[in-house]
Design a protein that fits this description.
Its cofactor is FMN. With 345 residues, the chain is α+β, with helices and mostly antiparallel strands. The chain folds into two domains: 4-53 and 69-270, Electron Transport, Fmn-binding Protein, Chain A (Pnp Oxidase, Chain A), CATH 2.30.110.10; 278-334, no CATH class. The protein has helices at 4-17, 25-30, 80-90, 140-148, 161-166, 177-181, 250-253, 278-283, 298-310, 314-323, 326-334, and strands spanning 43-44, 94-95, 97-102, 109-114, 117-122, 125-132, 150-155, 185-186, 195-196, 201-214, 222-236, 256-258, 264-266, 269-270, 292-293, 296-297. A seven-stranded antiparallel sheet has the order 4-3-7-10-11-6-5, covered by helices on one side. Strand 10 (201-214) and strand 11 form a beta hairpin.
Length: 345
């Protein structure tokens, strides 16, 4: 549901954008294989190059032979739609925030998907949602959020993607997407906006701040708004949540993402890579020869820092002194800032 002005602005924007590249999408879709519901759940493979070592760079050196084309977003002849299509096709995949809001008078209910959605903090839980405002006309979702300072963000899964996509329709403001899609409302715990019952993961949110964006082109209309939200309550489907209530099972969640144009993506395969630990890498010699400064091997100073950090008694420090080479002693006194060998009383 959108305001009448926003509905007309969206209609004009879509006509100019040409988002759908197919003259007859249904015919194109009919020629494609059926959606595979028999494929196994989320599976793991090895990373692209398990033998990678520090300093090795890309696992595909041929990428360095490709030239890059540099683009000024406002170069002559370039229109905002060009930047839009470039960004949504290049910054992928993007999670989709399925946002539910209620109007200030409580009579209007709105449900719409937004792929400019992301978490940016966990303590407190903070999310951001970006809204494109066409030629300055606010969509109902944005207006409701600004008026009530409340909304819910729901994750879209495979089993509800058609319904969620239909919510992007530029319907008049007196038409509810809930009725158009057949999706089910569930009351929230602390905000007035309902959550989507079909969603396996929903977050009740309160508005913390909003930032408007204006076009750099005349007449410099407001073309977007960023909302910063605090998540105040979580709702997770029971079979998707672990016993510690801190991990959502991707096999159950089956999230979909936005790619470029009218393309969506599904999550079916991945690989794991542990986060490297600096101290272990230094101790294991994996960084030897990679970090140097002014002719002295900074790894020597780094080793001192790691040893000092792990030391808890004067005896530990004396043992560290016995392990240090003359170069390390020099660096600890003259080249390591505060002089870690000041043992104190």
């Amino acid at each position: 549901m959108s305001t009448n002005a926003a509905s007309e602005a969206t209609k004009k924007w879509e006509a100019a954008l040409g988002r759908n590249p197919h003259k007859d999408f249904k015919s194109v879709e009919a020629s494609r294989p059926d959606y595979d519901t028999t494929r196994p759940g989320f599976t793991y493979t090895k990373s692209p190059n398990p033998a990678w070592t520090p300093g090795s760079g890309s696992s595909d050196p041929s990428v360095l032979t490709k030239q890059k084309i540099s683009i000024d977003p406002y170069e002559e002849g370039r229109v905002p739609g060009d930047n839009y299509k470039l960004l949504i096709s290049g910054v992928v995949p993007r999670p989709i925030g399925f946002v539910s809001t209620v109007s200030k008078d409580g009579k209007g209910e709105n449900l719409a998907p937004f792929s400019y959605t992301q978490i940016v903090n966990h303590d407190p839980p903070i999310l951001v949602v970006g809204f494109s405002s066409g030629q300055g006309a606010f969509k109902d979702t944005l207006q409701n959020a600004l008026d009530t300072k409340e909304l819910t963000v729901n994750i879209i899964s495979e089993w509800m993607v058609e319904a969620a996509n239909y919510c992007a329709i530029n319907a008049p403001s007196d038409v509810s997407e809930w009725a158009l899609t057949g999706l089910t409302q569930t009351p929230s715990k602390v905000v007035k906006a309902p959550i989507v019952a079909e969603s396996a993961f929903s977050i009740e949110c309160r508005l913390l701040s909003s930032t408007p964006f204006h076009s750099k082109l005349p007449p410099h209309a407001q073309t977007g708004t960023l909302l910063v939200l605090e998540g105040v309550y979580f709702h997770v489907r029971e079979d998707a949540l672990n016993s510690s209530k801190n991990i959502v099972d991707v096999n159950v969640l089956k999230p979909v993402s936005r790619l470029g144009g009218i393309t969506y993506g599904r999550v079916g395969e991945g690989f794991e890579m542990p986060r490297p630990d600096w101290g272990k890498e230094v101790e294991g010699g994996g960084l030897e020869g990679l970090v140097r400064e002014r002719g002295n091997d900074i790894l020597q100073a780094v080793k001192i820092s790691e040893w000092m950090r792990q030391a808890s008694t004067k005896s530990d420090l004396l043992q560290i002194g016995a392990r240090m080479t003359k170069l390390q002693v020099y660096l600890s006194v003259y080249g390591h800032g505060s002089g870690p060998l000041a043992l104190g009383p």
